[in-house]
Design brief:
Shape of chain A: globular
Number of strands of chain B: 15
Largest sheet of chain A: 7 strands, mixed
Radius of gyration of chain B: 18 Å
Helix content of chain A: 25-40%
Oligomer: heterodimer
Number of helices of chain A: 11
Largest sheet of chain B: 7 strands, mixed
Largest interface: A-B, 52 and 47 residues
Amino acid sequence: MSVTTPTAGTISRPDLARLLAGPAADGRLVAPVRTAPGVVLFAPVRDPGALTLEYVNSTVSPKGCLFPQSEKILGWRGGGPKLDLYSPPEPQPLVLFGVRPCDLRAITVLEPVFGGGYPDPYWRRRRELTTVVGLGCTEPGPYCFCVAWGISPVAAPEADLMLTPVDPGYLVQSQSPKGEELLRRSGVSLQAAGTEPAVLRERRTAELTARFRRLIDPTGVEAAAERLFDHPYWRELARRCLGCGICTYVCPTCHCFNVIDRTAPDGSGGRYRCWDSCLFERFTLQASGHNPRPTRAERLRNRLLHKLSYHRSRYGLEGCTGCGRCVAACPVNIDITEVVADLKGMMT
Amino acid sequence: MRGNPLWPYLATIVKIVDETPDVKTFRVVLDDPGARENFRHRPGQVALLSVFGQGEATISISSSPARRDYLEFSVRRVGRLTGVLHQFEEGYKIGVRGPYGNGFPLEELRGRDLLFVGGGIGLAPLRSLINYVLDRRDDFGSVEIIYGARSVADLCFKEELFKVWPKAPGVRVYTTIDRPEYGWDGHVGLVPAYLAELAPAGAGKCALICGPPIMIRLALQELARLGFSPERIVTTLELKMKCGIGKCGRCNIGSTMVCTEGPVFSLARLQALPPEY
């Protein structure tokens, strides 16, 4: 992401509501909302007062704004010898507010998957139409470990507009033309920061990094994972896995999908792309009955190694961003940070 | 939608051949003349077929690229989508995306003697290459084909297997069925055992194999014993795929995506992968 004329400065807390008022009134704002005690989700917000700023991170990652859980990719009319295809309606422009740095990094992690040799037009269009407003963290949660992957908890280059909390308001850094546009339209003017913005961010990064309690060092885990591919460890770990797939649904970087057709009684229908999970038995089950990953041991190993090794060897990018959601959500306490420590421990 | 790799070309089924009680070959022609012109595959590549209402399935292209007027897909009726496809008639519309994958290593094969080892519907991807070799006969050395199925009825491509290929210059065809059958005076036995019995010399030759996973596994061992080098034993894997373009995450073996980096692998490459196929 190129930063041509970086605009930086501070805004007050009331300015934040003004920044988001326009998109909210237009029905274009998606922001964190507390939907139940302990549950924060990204949802459409009509009134900036309805969004919450009191969250460590959302329960489910906001990746669905760019890669929806279920998305119509084509439609057809007719059948048999007479059939026509048509495109689904264009997605709407969005302002996605409140994305944490771990989830911002996830956009970079997913870029080569949906880009690459066969660019995915659905992802591309949503990327173009979405203005991403990042919001730096104020406190690491009990499951957070983004700093292990070299992520700053207060800033990330993927956001069009990055907000870093600095008492009493926010340091705002515009990082793209879309960010500039949002600022300009809101009429909110930035105040000169007392300290150089980069210095301010560095200071906040250092302060917050020191408060993380889940400390892991993933250096070398890729090599360990490769060496220990056949180790009984995976079978042992998978004995408690339920195969529920919650880790993949909350994950900001899981991108596996299924493609499902739905037909109306008149024969017309639509093709939908839906999130899927490599932990499900049918994920790799072939029509013949053959299954390359027949038990939970192979499936759990596949998911963990995708995060810790495969994504990196394919794209040169870490597949995990340390958001900690899979650790928090797992009903049987399978913990990727423990897996990293175990694998490295077995190598020493 | 132009430039959309998930958007299938509409195609019309122009001919259906009953190969076996559960295999049909669908000859299709892409409706759009431009797409027809641009669709150029290599033997061993695959396509995603859409049966609208049922989704998509990865099917190898079983026709030779040298025959440009149509594409052929030989499909075994084994699940939901293929069950519906088998009820289709000539004139029906399907969708076709592709071609995907690497295909057979033609440069490596050119000028060499070739041994094809196939089992059941596994002959479909090999057929594309066999017919390509016959269409470009002078570019390749001798051709041996060892092929087997459960029964005579289950042998695919009978017309080519018994009439066309044995008459082609420099081609020998060895056919076997799993169990003795009234009226069959050919070989009886499993493909890997027949391969061991025939014991073709491996030196300098390329072996191309496809069949059920267990046949592939045993045939690979046998070929290694016969002196085929791991670089010149080539097989084609067909894992479940939803996109064919490296995104849906279903056909990975370790960090390798079968859809974009396969489906054709040499034994040497396979040996470097985790055994998840």
